[in-house]
């Protein structure tokens, strides 16, 4: 009986195991096979429709599918939209160029090369699929114009049919992506939001509890940078996908902005506490740490509900309410703690301790405020419409104008040289040589490693040429009808599509798929022309090899010059924070416009530098230190400028008051230090910041003696806190300025910059 019952009792677990294994496969490799099936189906549908309509080049419709198709529907719609826009712009420009220079091939090639260069520079300057729109504006001009220039009388009809073929490929991609087991970017966004919120809460809790080391902090913040940039790309794609995504787009943009603010505030607070712990032998450091640690222990429980960590947007409503109550009670509690310190500290220790305490509590309060806003926006995603949707600030990418211009000049040079070669040799496949060089330069310029991308595309094209020759001359003559054509093409296309799903082989797959369609894609009237085929294949490979050589020789992106320029741009964000106008956004307090540009620009530049770093861990860590220093100092500078702009009306707060003049000099010297860092400028920044702190403290003493209104005292205390934090950031032993600390006369072991022979009090507080 026991033996007979054993199989039946074991069968349910076995069945559940099979179901679980299938579910795991469906979430991983199953998605790859689904994407492969959808891409091939869309390509064959586009080919069939174009052939049925008897368009002259159905292969263009099939090629468009492989250019546009993405695993999620949102990117397909976004890419299709920008492809249509770029195609129409390129069409108009090329018709104008043909009308002007059809009889002058040299001028026609020169102006086309200039236009492609401008579009390539625009592609390098922009982000996401807006960049792709610029690529298509240049590539379409070459694709339509160069062949049409051989027959100017038929240029308009050729352009119209080419647009029709591209449109068929776009429609086929969109229809298949949206109908056949659609994968929505909105679902990916929801999981990303949930994962990022929970991971950030865990990071905050672990950091405040002292359970995280420096390497983990760097790795976590590097991941946050990639998340922020990738999240903005996904959000901009999801807008094209569904009404639900459009209804939440403003809140998602706000969520990204508030996450940047919260993570920056927390890192600044964590770094300040680390500096105080590093200087634990000083009285002010001990007092501040002991006073604030009870507050830190209160943060983690605010994100719990019924003993469980808050995960979903619906549950975040509870955490948001708890944070609001905590935030409302915090100022009174901090004032009580401060009064206790004033009563217990000796006069010699009071100034330094209170300045450290005020700086830390100001950062703590701002972090709680930013975290409350972030949690409230996350909670608002649980409903379709919400007042937090009305958000003006957006992620603002930052690129180097010189680097973008280099990409454009490089593309123009390559196209000009190959165009001159075509004119000089009258090569029958010269049109393919020139227009493919334009496409390769434009597509590869958006890659962090364009030389490798061009080389991989060249190898993929070589493989496509061999496979295409087998299909064109060995298979197509022996088949009849469209179904058999699909059977012959599907395996060959599947190989290339599979390569595009593997990041390491994406360049090979792209070159293979696009140019297999170009070489072996059948037309309505198939021509048996081996010599023409070989010429076309050779022209395609040569154009890609020349493009790869141009990327490797003409100011290659991987060289130190670009890294140094991007690093200078990253430091320049702090300069911008000190000097740029405080742009105010409607309905948002303070200089939110400047802060938003500063935050998003610094992270975008960091993302680009990470991509260029490759395996150079030393450069990556150095870049992270510069990002931390830039974000800390830049945010403190913006906070200080906001406080100065909101000071009460009183003669002591006049812009020409000595302490205001000293503060302006401090901001100016800090900006000069980030502009061109060296020991002399570092010493000057420390000196002027010290002078500004001393001058502000003198005014604060006058305010206290006169028993002036509390608003004046609090405003001065906040200004002092921001100045003090800037100074501690400049002498942080873990910052890029640590090398200058000795030359500046500051002791990195003390957050005040105090040397061992300094006395307590004003010197320490400054």
UniProtKB/TrEMBL annotation:
Location in or out of the cell: Cell membrane
Presence of keyword Ligase: no
Source taxon at top rank: Bacteria
Pfam families xref list: FUSC
GO molecular function: transmembrane transporter activity
UniProt protein name: Putative membrane protein YccC
GO CC annotations on file: plasma membrane
Coiled coil feature spans: none
Keywords: Cell membrane, Membrane, Transmembrane, Transmembrane helix
InterPro entries per the UniProt record, alphabetical: PHBA_efflux_AaeB/fusaric-R (IPR006726)
Protein's membrane topology: Multi-pass membrane protein
Chief location category: membrane
């Amino acid at each position: 009986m026991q033996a007979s019952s054993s199989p039946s009792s074991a069968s349910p677990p076995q069945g559940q195991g099979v179901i679980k294994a299938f579910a795991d496969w469906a979430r991983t490799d199953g998605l790859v096979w689904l994407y492969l099936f959808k891409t091939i189906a869309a390509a064959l549908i586009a080919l069939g429709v174009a052939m049925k309509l008897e368009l002259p080049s159905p292969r263009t419709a099939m090629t468009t599918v492989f250019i546009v198709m993405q695993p999620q529907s949102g990117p397909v719609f976004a890419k299709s939209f920008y492809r249509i826009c770029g195609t129409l712009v390129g069409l108009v420009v090329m018709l104008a160029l043909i009308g002007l220079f059809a009889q002058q091939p040299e001028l026609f090639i020169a102006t086309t090369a200039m236009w492609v260069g401008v579009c390539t520079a625009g592609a390098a300057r922009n982000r996401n699929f807006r960049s792709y729109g610029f690529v298509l504006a240049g590539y379409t001009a070459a694709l339509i114009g160069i062949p049409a220039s051989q027959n100017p009388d038929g240029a308009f009809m050729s352009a119209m049919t080419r647009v029709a073929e591209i449109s068929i490929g776009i429609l086929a991609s969109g229809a298949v992506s949206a109908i056949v087991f659609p994968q929505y970017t909105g679902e990916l966004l929801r999981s990303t939001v949930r994962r990022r919120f929970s991971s950030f809460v865990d990071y905050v809790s672990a950091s405040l509890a002292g359970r995280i080391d420096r390497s983990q902090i760097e790795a976590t913040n590097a991941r946050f940078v990639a998340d922020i940039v990738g999240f903005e790309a996904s959000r901009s794609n999801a807008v094209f996908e569904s009404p639900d995504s459009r209804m939440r787009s403003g809140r998602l943009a706000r969520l990204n902005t508030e996450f940047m603010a919260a993570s920056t505030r927390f890192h600044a607070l964590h770094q300040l506490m680390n500096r105080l712990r590093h200087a634990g032998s000083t009285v002010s450091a001990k007092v501040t740490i002991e006073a604030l640690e009870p507050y830190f222990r209160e943060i983690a429980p605010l994100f719990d509900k019924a003993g469980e960590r808050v995960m979903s947007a619906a549950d975040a409503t509870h955490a948001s309410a708890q944070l609001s109550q905590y935030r409302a009670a915090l100022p009174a509690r901090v004032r009580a703690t401060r009064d206790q310190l004033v009563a217990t500290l000796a006069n010699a220790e009071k100034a330094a301790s209170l300045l450290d305490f005020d700086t830390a509590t100001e950062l703590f309060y701002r972090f709680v405020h930013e975290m409350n806003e972030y949690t409230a926006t996350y909670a608002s995603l649980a409903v379709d419409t919400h007042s937090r949707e009305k958000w003006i600030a957006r992620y603002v990418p930052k690129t180097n104008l010189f680097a973008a211009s280099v990409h454009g000049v490089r593309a123009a040079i390559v196209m000009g040289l190959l165009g001159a070669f075509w004119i000089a040799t009258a090569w029958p496949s010269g049109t393919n040589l020139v227009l493919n060089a334009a496409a390769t330069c434009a597509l590869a310029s958006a890659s962090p490693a364009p030389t490798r991308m061009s080389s991989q595309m060249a190898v993929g094209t070589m493989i496509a040429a061999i496979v295409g020759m087998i299909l064109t001359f060995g298979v197509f003559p022996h088949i009849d009808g469209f179904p058999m054509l699909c059977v012959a093409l599907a395996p060959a296309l599947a190989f290339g599509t599979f390569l595009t799903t593997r990041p390491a082989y994406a360049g090979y797959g792209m070159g293979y798929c696009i140019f297999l369609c170009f070489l072996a894609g059948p037309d309505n009237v198939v021509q048996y022309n081996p010599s023409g085929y070989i010429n076309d294949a050779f022209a395609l490979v040569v154009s890609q090899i020349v493009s790869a050589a141009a990327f490797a020789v003409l100011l290659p992106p991987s060289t130190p010059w670009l890294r140094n320029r991007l690093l200078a741009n990253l430091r320049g964000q702090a300069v911008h924070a000190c000097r740029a106008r405080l742009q105010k956004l409607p309905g948002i307090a303070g200089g939110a416009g400047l802060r938003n540009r500063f935050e998003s620009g610094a992270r975008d530049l960091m993302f680009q530098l990470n991509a260029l770093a490759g395996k150079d861990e030393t450069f990556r860590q150095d870049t992270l230190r510069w990002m931390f220093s830039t974000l800390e100092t830049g945010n403190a500078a913006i906070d200080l400028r906001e406080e100065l702009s909101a000071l009460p009306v009183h003669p002591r707060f006049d812009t020409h008051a000595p302490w205001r003049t000293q503060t302006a000099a401090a901001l100016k010297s800090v900006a000069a230090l980030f502009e061109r860092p060296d020991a002399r400028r570092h010493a000057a920044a420390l000196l002027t910041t010290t002078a500004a702190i001393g001058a502000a403290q003198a005014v604060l003493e006058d305010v206290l003696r006169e028993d002036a209104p509390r608003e004046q005292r609090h405003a001065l205390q906040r200004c002092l806190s921001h100045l003090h934090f800037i100074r501690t950031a400049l002498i942080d032993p873990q910052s890029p300025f640590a090398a200058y600390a000795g030359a500046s006369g500051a002791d990195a072991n003390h957050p005040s910059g105090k040397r061992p022979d300094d006395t307590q009090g004003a010197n320490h507080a400054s």
